[in-house]
Amino acid sequence: MDQSIKKVILLGSGALKIGQAGEFDYSGSQALKAMREEGIETVLINPNIATIQTSEGVADKVYFLPITPYFVEKVIQKEKPDGILLAFGGQTALNCGTELYQSGTLEKYNVKVLGTSVDAIMITEDRDLFVKKLDEIDAKTPQSRAVESLEEALEAANEIGFPIMLRSAYALGGQGSGICENEKEFTELCKSALSFSNQILIEESLKGWKEIEFEVIRDKNDHCFTVVPMENFDPLGIHTGESIVVAPIITLRQDQIELLEDVARRVVRHIGIVGECNIQYAFNAETNDYRIIEINARLSRSSALASKASGYPLAFVATKLALGYTLDQIGEMGTPNSAYTAPKVDYMIVKIPRWDLNKFYGVSHEIGSSMKSVGEVMSIGQSFEEVIQKGLRMIGQGMHGFVGNREITFDDVEESLSKPTDLRIFAIADAFEKGYSVEKIEELTKIDPWFLGKLENIYNYSKVISSYNKIEDLPEDVLREAKRLGFSDFQIARFIEEPEGNMETEQIRVRNHRKSLQITPVIRRIYTVASEHPDKTNYLYFTYGDVKPHTPYKEDGKEAVIVLGSGAYRIGSSVEFDWCSVNAVQTARELGYDSVMINYNPETVSTDYDMCDRLYFDELTFERVLDVIDVENPKGVILSVGGQIPNNLAMKLHRQDVPILGTQPTSIDRAENRHKFSGMLDDLGIDQPRWKEASSVEEIDAFIDEVGFPLLIRPSYVLSGAAMNVCYDRDQMHTFLKMAVNVSKEYPVVISSFMQNAKEIEFDAVAKEGEVVEYAISEHVEFAGVHSGDATLVFPAQKIYFETMRRVKKISKQIAKELNISGPFNIQYLAKNNDIKVIECNLRASRSFPFVSKVLKQNFIDTATRIMLDAPYSKPDSSVFDLEYIGVKASQFSFSRLQNADPVLGVDMSSTGEVGCIGDDFSEAILKSMLSVGYKIPKKAILISSGEMKSKVDLLDACKLLGERNYELYASHGTQKFLVDNGIKATEVDWPDEDGENNILTMIADKKFDLIINIPKDVTRRELTNGYNIRRGAIDYNIPLITNARLASAFITAFCTLDLDDVHIKSWDEY
Amino acid sequence: MQRLRLVRLILENGIVFQGKSFGAERPASGEVVFSTAMVGYPESLTDPSYKGQILSLTYPIIGNYGVPAKSETDGISDFFESDRIHASGLIVQDYSDDYSHWSGTESLGEWLKRENIPGICGIDTRKLTKILREEGSLLGKIVFEEDHETDENSVFSAADYNDDSTDFYNPENDNLVAEVSCKEIIEYGKGDKKVVLIDCGTKLNIVRELIKHGVSVIRVPWDYDFNTLDFNGVVISNGPGNPNHCVATIGNIRKALNNEKPIFGICMGNQLLAKAAGAIIYKLRYGHRSHNQPVRRIGSNQCFITSQNHGYAVDESCLSSDWEPWFVNMNDGTNEGIRHKTKPFYSVQFHPEAKGGPNDTRFFFDEFVKLIVNH
Questions:
Q1: Rounded to whole angstroms, what are the CA distances from A170 to A21, A115, A294, A568, B172?
Q2: What ipTM was predicted for this assembly?
Q3: pTM for this structure?
Q4: Which residue of A has its CA nearest to B78?
């Protein structure tokens, strides 16, 4: 190891966004762990406050600051580190580090880049350098030209010939990439791509080739090997982040894999990677021809997947290599293995992406070379049939596996097969139903027939199961085979008896029948080298194999506590619930229990096997959770830290007499079932927006006559407002209601009157037996109507009346008492003047728990877990709530990746991530947060179109400030008049559909503006309007956009009253 | 897939597994061994080192890419390591009869049937591996039952039913090298420099590698006294079973040690060279059969990941003083190679020719040929 390295800065990846998600919390956390083991002092810069890596005891110092060259330099100045790690924070960290290196900053402060050199990184990032470097060793890359203008691009395209693959350099997750069939498509995409990057790549299209991926690891002594070869189920042309991926490779011969491995090693050695990298190939299995598509000289989503798929801790090992160790000197994290052994597995894994495209208006469901998915799952098993069915259940969109999803049929199957969408796999199931052959489906999808044959097996077996009429009649061999093929008890029940409803009874009957035949799943331990060495990892999964029933898992006689994790990251549930889960297992472990985690998301820290005593990398379904409970016989199960998935299991588990820790399921049901909850509030005399349970159209109409519009519609048991909407007229209401009812038949739809211009207040707390122990009151910057997951949160609340605060506390205490809450909970309030209304109550940790815990330096989950386990806890004294600083949580949007999506905020959540920054005052905190989610302080020109009069007025003071600071203001007609009337200089511009010299769209394309403020007049009218064109233009041309007047005011006030130089560079512990 | 016949794997310790037959329907017996390689079943099955062994694969999904056609280049098969399947039987968990690869001309099951080798699927290979790991290698036999109703419990004791028709077979007792070695000299290549390849059951890739380096190869039977031939170097090949049967080979190698011509041993070759140099050989508990064995060149920080397939190892403590251990296994510390302190004689326990496995150590062929050319 390099002894001169005593202090290291690690760059995180910031807010989660499409293409860069939780996997970097995993890689950064492992890196920090590896350095801590070596006694190196660590400094972390990451504004993502909900991560594990920014928790206490992971890094020595944490800065919640933007990952930009400006702020990183400031931290370097202050901390004087010896080294910097760039490979653990995704593209964000890599780009920032490269800039700092090129500008000479790192040299100036004598900071050494550890691991792969920046020169080598640049080879992998700059296409021209990349091709040249690979040409030197005859490694093949796609025919490609890097161009910097549209003219050059067209010339290159005509030379190579259509179809053409277009990529932008230095872009995460293939942003601005796509396959173009003709010149028209090509020209459009070029323009957009050139706005993100000054260099784009024009390449030969290899559509239909296989896509193969390796993770390669190399040390300074040139030891080098590949880890877990992966194969995409979808053929090339679909971004690897959008593909179903299997490992190990299944449709290539040994010599072909060898060929690609050899090339990988040659390339990695030639470029000079030290640490870990990812290499992606296009491979033609008939000709053995290959192209190297991409090399990522850093940890990536794929490396996180490979780590979880093999049990080989790539990020940990890569860190040690960066510190100067060689592979033979490193032991694998927590195991007696040497890190110098390429893992071999004796199971198969499949990764499936999770999309949330329904959350965005105007987005196409087609998937292609640009990434749209927001999360992923990994399933482990013994046959492809098993892993794909498990995986499709894990995705968590109501699917029960490959078959048995009654609701899904396709009108045009052929098109659904040939034009891939997020639902294509189910189109394959529908195609089998409609009599298509494997050959025909292969022709339409270009998916390898091996996979299709296995899918056909599943389909065929569903017919075998269907031929029985009673669950108890199912013979042993059929049931055993069904389980081997990954059928769930739910699917089996559905195929045999076709019951309606949630089928809880029928599922349990299948379970009982199975158990009577001794067909129960077995636990498999994941060893990194197949089963060759009897290592003691605690990394487990379930499969059906051996016939012996399992004896309860009691290795050391300790009582087990099971924590249910949060599943796939998706809009409304991501890293914050991973933070909660990890904290819960850690507290349980500290308290002397065997802590048991169930989760299946490869992008998480909770699925690192050293985080708990036993990790079940498996489904969070009713069936599988019961399987774990059978084996563990636990003291109890914690449902309240993993978001909505575990919460939804409360009543089902309760009915099976499973001990639930903390708040009892009957209370959870009273809070989740809107009808019961509203009734309870009425009984307690607590005000709430007027509401009605809607089960028929007549009822709804009567309610409308009574209260009028606008109205909020939502079904019960939802997270992040799935299928929640505000309606302004009757037609809208009826159309929407149809959609909403389809979401979940199990629970009724509730409609309530919607308050405008009200403040929204969040109450996050922990209670014990109905008594509130600790709490945090925060407020939204935006008025109600923006989903709480999209809103900007201020803690402690700054602008609410003392009386409001008092009432919030009082009502919260009443509710806690009534529901006898023990554990975490969250209540959302509306406040107008001093009127307080309760809008929602969750008897589980909420999205803002890590934020308030970290700002308050009081770990709410630790307290909650202690309470749930009846262990001593320290009750904070009231001085703790008296903070001398402020935290602001801001949301990260990924609209730039979602072509055509209208980037406007409403009651349905659309942000993909968030940051939380701390400042001495509100302006400082919001400025740091806004800069952290990608806003920039405008240099000169700002476009304002401020919508209705109310928002014009809201923005007036901020516009005055801008005027005083000599910003050039441009405004649409009405706004311009309003500004001028109020003495603010502004240039009038023309709407997109108007003729005139100052057409807004042209000016956007010419990059005339540094900031665009567009306040939509009506949040529900989302057709192609001028407003939409402006907003979309801003996104497509990468110009910061704000669509909320109150947020715009706050941001403008912050940067007008505060100079960047005045922003304090303070670490978390300095507050 | 048609309905498959039930078949049992009976281990000498009495444990019985029940599976389904997808290969030839005939009984077989041998030593049961496991390999952790994830791909490369055509290469493994035709590797003569598996003679006398029933091979169990830990990777569960097998057969997926079918079996390639028998094509040849310069008289050497393109995809196989010999002209036939040498393993006595194959045990897998999830067999894919519907294979998918353009080069596949038959399924794995069809191939096994054609070569009259039984194959069993539906076995919990993780469990079998665990047993072999804990108890060491075991003898086993594959037995077909009459088609009658059986209960599905696959864990039986051997006493539950009678099977006297097939005996356990211990390959240790036979000279398997003699069985798999060529019967007469075969020559390959047109190079000026001539390499004698002592065929103890050579994998064809050793021949391919040598020819690729421009030498001609004289492949001789295991007991042939090659010292009478005109040659520039010797390669001692891999091979099956107990090396102690190869008395004639060791005698011939001893003679060659009196000369200065380069000698390079691979796998069995390492053991035979070591025996010629005075060492003794012992049987490993369950052998090394995988594509990811880490080895270190002794006294250096040079490590390699290697392909291995052996059940015996060299006890280097008895090497004569002219010799020294050269490589060591980083997992269990066993010997992975020896070399002469002054003369160009050396050998490795692993497979630099791979097929399958990593190509990290192919450079041994470069070095060996260089040695011959410069000698």
A1: 17, 20, 12, 27, 61
A2: 0.91
A3: 0.93
A4: A255
